[in-house]
Design brief:
mainly alpha, three-stranded antiparallel sheet, two-stranded antiparallel ribbon, 5 strands
């Protein structure tokens, strides 16, 4: 039994050579608790004598524990970066909405539908406005010019309404809906 225990012991210099640690580092590990709680990392059995097998096992567990700590700290760091990026993005969107750089998708669609409805309504009113004048005309050129002028007037009315709305959006006013938690947004018109 004595032969077996002395065969498993090594001096601090031999242990330092085998593990590629300095003598001072091995002495520090002899005072460091193992991650599994079963004694010290380096197991000292006497003056300048260390249990080789238990010490190697302790060093392996110690290195694994350090690697786990590094992995957990990297995961925590990545999570923190992801969280900060998400917060920054939410703040940027909120600031852009407040400054009028972004308008809610729902508001934009509502305005588009209103413009399309007005445009179609103006086009549908053309025959009623043109019929009294056209009934007297026999010249195709005059009829053509009157129809063209009326269509241009309808187009000018719609573009005038669009420009009024663009001005209101640029000024940040005339908003009917507040931004939602995750609004669908579109860029401000230039």
């Amino acid at each position: 039994m004595a032969d077996e225990s002395s065969a498993n012991t090594v001096g601090i210099e031999a242990l330092a050579t085998i593990t590629h640690y300095g003598v001072r580092h091995i002495q520090q590990l002899a005072r460091t608790e193992r991650p599994d709680g079963k004694g010290m990392v380096v197991v000292r059995v006497g003056r300048n004598q260390y249990d080789f097998l238990r010490t190697i096992e302790g060093i392996i567990l110690h290195i694994r524990g350090l690697a786990d700590e590094v992995d957990h700290s990297k995961e925590a760091q990545h999570e923190k970066v992801r969280l900060l990026s998400a917060q920054r993005k939410r703040h940027e969107i909120a600031a852009a909405v407040i400054q009028g750089d972004l308008v809610s998708f729902d508001e934009t669609m509502e305005r588009f539908v209103n413009f399309a409805t007005l445009f179609v309504s103006d086009l549908e009113a053309l025959p009623g406005r043109l019929t009294p004048d056209m009934a007297r005309e026999t010249s195709p050129d005059i009829i053509h010019d009157k129809i063209r002028d009326e269509v241009r007037q309808v187009r000018a009315n719609v573009f005038g309404r669009i420009e009024d709305a663009r001005g209101a959006i640029r000024a940040g006013g005339n908003r009917k809906t507040a931004p939602k938690a995750h609004p669908r947004l579109v860029g401000r018109p230039n």
